[in-house]
Amino acid sequence: MQRYFALSRTTHGLLDIAAPAFCGLLWLGEFPTLPIIVLALFTAFAAYTAIYALNDLVGLQFDRERFAGPGLNPGYSVEASAQRYPLAQNALSVRSGAVWMGTWLALALIGSYLLNPIVVLILLAAAALEVLYCSLLKVTFLRTLVSGVVKTCGSIAAIFVVDHAPALSPLLLIAAWLFFWEIGGQNIPADWNDTEEDRRVHAKTIPVQFGFELAGRLVIAALTLSVVLSAFLPLVAPAALGWLFPVASLLIGALLLLRPGYRLFRLKEGRLAARLFDSASYYPLSQLILITVFLVAGSVLGG
After folding, report:
1. CA–CA gap between residue 281 and residue 162 (Å, rounded)
2. What domains can you pick out in the chain, each with its CATH number?
3. What is the C-alpha to C-alpha distance for residues 181 and 155, in angstroms, rounded to an integer?
4. Residue 150's closest CA among 125, 168, 169, 176?
5. In the chain, is it the N or the C terminus that has fewer CB atoms within a 10 Å radius of its CB?
6. Residues whose CB falls within 8 Å of the CB of residue 223, separated by 6 or more in sequence, listed in order
7. Does the pLDDT value for residue 76 go beyond 90?
8. Alpha carbon distances (Å) from 96 to 8, 22, 45, 260
9. In whole angstroms, what is the distance from residue 37 CA to residue 175 CA?
10. Burial class (CB within 10 angstroms; exposed 0-12, middle 13-18, buried 19+) of 122
11. What is the pLDDT of residues 31-74, one digit of tens each?
């Protein structure tokens, strides 16, 4: 099973689930019923498992070209398995990978329909955008923007689970917050870490196309926007979170995003790009823990 979980980057996927969980709790301002929590978590796991596997299936040829050289960088702590890219390493057949992906996608679609049929459309849109993102590797660096949109889909879906008619303005606030986190904390650092491999296959990424100086500036700009926007997230919540919540949120962003982002910008070392990716991967989980603490405290004090 390790090869299948490597295909779906399960460790990273589990961390990613924290983002929709946080957004659902923030939007609702309280904990949903237990059946909704269980079904939503299972559906999110199935969806992320399927989408990450889809990424490797669509990008198989590009990954094989990368392996044709000296080899890949060790990766990040959240994706450091020696079995990364099992399809490209011929550790798993394409047919097996496709069956794995299709099974989890079907389960995710069933769960999505039970939660809210609109979530089905969001999931299908995310899958289509993921295919587009992979297909643009050698076409344009603007694929980075597609990645930002894909990462917002899970959290937008979570909001539609707890509110079938969400208001547009707060929805856009959350989408923008996640979009800039993905660009500055995940996508550009991942491409930075893979620069040598991407040059070998003539990929069009921001670090390859424009160099590390501009890439670093974009990382700092995107992360700064994400952290600043996080201070306004309490406006979304119906629960009274108080002034301490945005202060804590800003502190989390400074520690997990801005500090490693600035180090990368200043020193421009590839290993620091991987460290930023790792640190940013724990950012949604930290926000989830934060909102959970505040909701539990509010329930206890209010009760």
Report:
1. 24
2. 2-302 (1.10.357.140)
3. 13
4. 125
5. C
6. 180, 181, 184, 185, 253, 257, 258, 261, 280
7. no
8. 13, 33, 19, 38
9. 22
10. buried
11. 999 999 999 999 999 999 999 999 999 988 887 877 666 655 65
* CA-wise closest residue to 186 among 110, 256, 263, 132: 256
- Nearby residues of 71 by Cβ (< 8 Å), 6 or more positions away: none
User: Over the chain, what HEC string results?
Assistant: CHHHHHHCCHHHHHHHCHHHHHHHHHHHCCCCCHHHHHHHHHHHHHHHHHHHHHHHHHCHHHHHHHHCCCCCCCCCHHHCCCCCCCCCCCCCCHHHHHHHHHHHHHHHHHHHHHHCHHHHHHHHHHHHHHHHHHHCCCCCCCHHHHHHHHHHHHHHHHHHHHCCCCCHHHHHHHHHHHHHHHHHHHHHHHHHHCHHHHHHCCCCCHHHHHHHHHHHHHHHHHHHHHHHHHCCHHHCCCCCCCCHHHHHHHHHHHHHHHHHHHHHHHHCCHHHHHHHHHHHHCHHHHHHHHHHHHHHHHHHHHC
Residue 259 CA to chain centroid, in angstroms? Answer: 20
Six token digits for residue 289 = 């823990």
Q: Show the tokens assigned to 121.
A: 């459309």
Amino acid occupying residue 104: W
What lies within 8 Å, CB to CB, of 90 at 6+ separation is none
Radius of gyration of the chain (CA): 19
What are the tens digits of pLDDT across the range 190-226? 999 989 888 888 899 999 999 999 999 999 999 999 9
